[in-house]
Specification:
It holds the Pfam family Beta_helix. Keywords: Signal. This protein is mainly beta. It contains 4 helices and 34 strands. It is globular and about 65 Å long.
């Protein structure tokens, strides 16, 4: 086993670890699977697993369960973890420990999710690339970047292409920043699901089926998603036909969706460039599938939309009755529409200088055990902006 070990005092200090921390270097070549997994096993808190340049042809998933470890490549075009020959259907890389930094490498063609972290607090994804190189296919892995059940999540400067569910997905987590990243040719570009307190900013989201989704779903351990800011993003030309496997919740996302809010609370959408989306630039809808979760509220509430720049939209609505509505209106659908869930008390507050459509669907009602929804007033007033998400300083330091 060829593992080269050297001193890593700077990284140790950054990660709050001891001076005894070391760098474990793994070069490309034969037995890459065994050597790389062994490095992730023998790593101690504070260590850096540094992956060399080259294409690492892997036949099984990798995993890390040690706290305070950095996994670092030489760049997302230079260090490539290639799972094309992966025998199983699991993740490319699975993280189940805290204070982990993943940076500057690529994951290609994993059979399952690209990089998944579960219960991994204070995790950083930085300058990564996750890609399915055969284009948009239903047989691609579901998620590219996939942190779940975590607190303090930073996704910074990543590129994800080809996920059959969501390129960048954060689920059942809290205190989240997704920024400076690119999501292209996924079913959903970026998805924040059943999560609390998230900022999604400065991203480029294009050529997906749906650009940015903010969902809340029933029958999950954490629900009642709220306090999400979507701002300063470019969300354009999300016209890739939906290629999600049948039965996935995102299989129902209409082709040509810019930003979609479903059953979430206190969501603010502002200062974005949104356009060239054939169904709508912004959709606010309730959850319409059957469910048996007494604590779940299917109604979106306290959604505010302001100061966005809208390009064309609504010329190819991809939902039942969409073309008929478009013809009745004598042209394209308006850039913003709300399905009418919950009635007028739950109408989104809209201060963009564009038309908006209320579909007037009142077939679903707010739950009587809802988490204290506070309906917006009907005077178009924009509420106070939610506070910015702040992460521990040590997390921000590693991406400087």
């Amino acid at each position: 086993m060829r593992l080269l070990i050297s001193c890593a005092a700077a990284t140790a200090a950054m990660m709050g670890s001891s001076a005894a921390a070391k760098t474990i270097t793994v070069a490309s070549g034969e037995d890459a699977q065994e050597r790389l997994q062994e490095a992730l096993i023998v790593a101690q808190p504070g260590d850096v697993v540094e992956i060399g340049e080259g294409r690492f042809r892997l036949t099984d998933g990798l995993s890390l369960d040690v706290d305070r470890v950095t996994v670092k490549g030489q760049g997302s075009e230079k260090t490539i973890l290639d799972f094309t020959g992966q025998a199983g259907a699991g993740e490319g890389l699975l993280i189940s420990s805290d204070d982990v930094v993943l940076r500057e490498f690529a994951v290609e063609n994993s059979k399952g999710d690209g990089i998944k972290s579960k219960g991994a607090d204070r995790i950083v994804y930085h300058k990564l690339r996750v890609e399915w190189t055969g284009g948009p296919l239903s047989t691609n892995g579901a998620y590219g970047i996939y942190p779940v059940e975590s607190k303090d999540v930073l996704i910074d400067s990543v590129l994800v292409r080809g996920a059959s569910d969501a390129g960048i997905y954060v689920g059942q987590s809290r205190n989240i920043i997704v920024r400076g990243s690119t999501a292209v040719e996924n079913v959903a570009g970026i998805e924040i699901e059943n999560s609390y307190d998230a900022d999604v900013l400065d991203n480029i989201v294009t050529k997906n089926t749906g650009g940015i989704l903010v969902f809340d779903l029933p029958n999950l351990p954490q629900k009642g998603g709220h306090n999400v800011r979507i701002f300063s993003n470019i969300v354009i030309n999300n016209m890739t036909p939906n290629f999600a496997p049948k039965g996935n919740i995102v299989a129902s996302v209409p082709t040509g969706t810019g930003v979609m809010v479903m059953a979430n609370r206190n969501v603010q959408i502002f200062d974005n460039v949104i356009g060239d989306n054939g169904t709508a630039n912004v959709m606010v809808v309730g959850y319409r599938n059957a469910f048996d979760d007494a604590e779940y509220d299917p109604i979106p509430s306290q959604v505010a939309i302001w100061d966005n720049q809208h390009l064309r939209s609504g010329w190819a609505p991809d939902f039942p009755g969409g073309f008929e509505i478009m013809k009745a209106l004598g042209g394209n659908l308006p850039p913003i529409f709300w399905d009418g869930s919950g009635g007028s008390d739950y109408a989104p507050s809209i201060a963009d200088n564009v038309a908006a459509l209320n579909l007037g669907l009142t077939d679903i009602k707010a739950s009587p055990v809802s988490a204290n929804p506070v309906p917006l007033t009907a005077d178009g007033k924009i509420p106070a902006e939610l506070p910015a998400i702040t992460l521990p300083g040590s997390m921000e330091a590693v991406v400087q």
